[in-house]
Amino acid sequence: MTHRTRILLVEGHSESARSIEGVIKKSRAVQFEVTRCCALAGAIQELSKFSFDITLLDLDLPDNQGPNTFQRIQELHPEIPIIVLSGNRNETMALKAIGRGAQDYIAKDALMSRVLTKAILFAIERHRYRNNLQAQRSLAFFALDRLTCGVILIDPFRKVLRSNQFAKAVLAEGDGLLLNAGCIRASSPCEDQCFQESLAAILSPCGSFPTLRGSHLTLSRKGKRPLALMIAPMLLESPNQEEHRNNAAIFISDPERAGATIEEILRRNYQLTKAESRLCCLILQGFCVADCSNVLGITVYTVRDHLKKIFLKTGTTRQTDLVRLLLTEPPASEDPISV
């Protein structure tokens, strides 16, 4: 069955709507199915009831005019790409809608079937690509927030691009590492000079990315063990392949903070005892029964008894099955895991 691209045409003037629909239907390369609305209220109702691939939107509607028309639909249905239909007198408004996220705008008096078909298909693909990127970014940011070390991404101008929850907690304390006017600095003036020099060496436009090396620093704190930092280079590619922009990633280790350990995760998710979860960790590291006996200071018979209980609680029957379970299906946890 041939796929039909479903279009919601929102046009306030019936004559213009008929003309635009006629142009759309001239396309032979793609099959379009057009639903027409003459007002914003009707468009919102259609979008809430039915699925569309794209919306063609006139900004001059009987019940709403200007960029706010676009914004209303975008806020309610951000998953649907929008092409703005522009008349000569509202081209400025169309450009404002582009700035707010519209995929494209097309002048009504310059509509041709081939141009409109290409614009529709390109807008759908761009919007799908952007949604995929946003989903990937959300997943990456979620993963960053699960780490039990701080991560701060720095742009070439020393401004913070992104920091995970761990790093935000460290910065909120204002001890050892500070956030000042969007930039990171050390609390101690002497340590800050070293920190800024290390950061500058990585962010320098003269630095060749393949030859850059990270640096390790410690930052003192009041009444606490020092923070351990690693500053590493990152590369943001430029459209001009002869240019590159060095960015930096700051990794922060705080000995005063610790997430849930693997042993704690195992205990909570499989209802293991402390001794059983400790034995599981040793098995994961490749220890045999005799080695586990020596490390834990218990007899081989006790180790085997613990193993039997672990097999029962995890639904496994052999040591190899247990290792496979813990490696390929790690227990889910709401807490970050320390290794």
Descriptive notes:
With 339 residues, the protein is α/β, with parallel strands linked by helices. The protein has three domains: 5-136, 3-Layer(aba) Sandwich (Rossmann fold); 147-253, Beta-Lactamase (2-Layer Sandwich), CATH 3.30.450.20; 260-338, Winged helix-like DNA-binding domain superfamily/Winged helix DNA-binding domain (Arc Repressor Mutant, subunit A, Orthogonal Bundle), CATH 1.10.10.10. Helix content is 45%, strand content 24%. It is built from twelve helices and 16 strands. The chain has helices at residues 14-25, 40-49, 67-76, 91-99, 113-146, 165-173, 189-203, 262-270, 274-284, 289-296, 300-314, 319-328, and strands spanning 5-10, 32-37, 54-58, 60-61, 64-65, 82-86, 104-107, 150-154, 160-163, 177-180, 183-186, 215-221, 224-237, 244-253, 260-261, 337-338. The strands form five sheets. A five-stranded parallel sheet has the order 2-1-3-6-7, sandwiched between helices. The protein is elongated.
List the keywords.
339 residues; alpha/beta; Arc Repressor Mutant, subunit A; 3 domains; Beta-Lactamase
Give the structural class: alpha/beta
Helix content: 40-55%
- Estimate the global geometry from the Cα principal axes: elongated
Q: What's the overall average pLDDT, rounded?
A: 81
CATH superfamily of the largest domain: Response regulator
Give the spatial strand order of the biggest sheet.
2-1-3-6-7
What's the CATH architecture name of the largest domain? Answer: 3-Layer(aba) Sandwich
